[in-house]
Design goal:
Blueprint: H1 5-21, H2 26-33, H3 37-45, H4 53-63
Helix pairs in contact: 1-3, 2-3, 2-4
Length: 71
């Protein structure tokens, strides 16, 4: 399942906000989430056009959040 572009942009901003509050670099978050750093970067800047729920779930878990805050 893939999310709409508007949802991805909002999620990217939320991911960046939470990541920065936790003082994590994009690389550190990517390692914890087992995704590439470029996916984190693309999400946070709104350049990512497609994201799977599984990827968002991994990022949420790495941030210590429930995925539902992104949906």
């Amino acid at each position: 399942v893939k999310l709409k572009k508007e949802v991805i942009i909002l999620n990217g901003k939320k991911i960046a906000e939470i990541r920065k509050k936790q003082k994590l670099s994009q690389e550190e978050l990517a390692d914890k989430a087992k995704v590439s750093r470029s996916i984190i970067s693309f999400l946070e800047t709104g350049k990512e056009k497609d994201i799977k729920i599984l990827t968002l779930t991994r990022i949420a878990k790495a941030l210590g959040c429930e995925v539902k805050i992104f949906l």
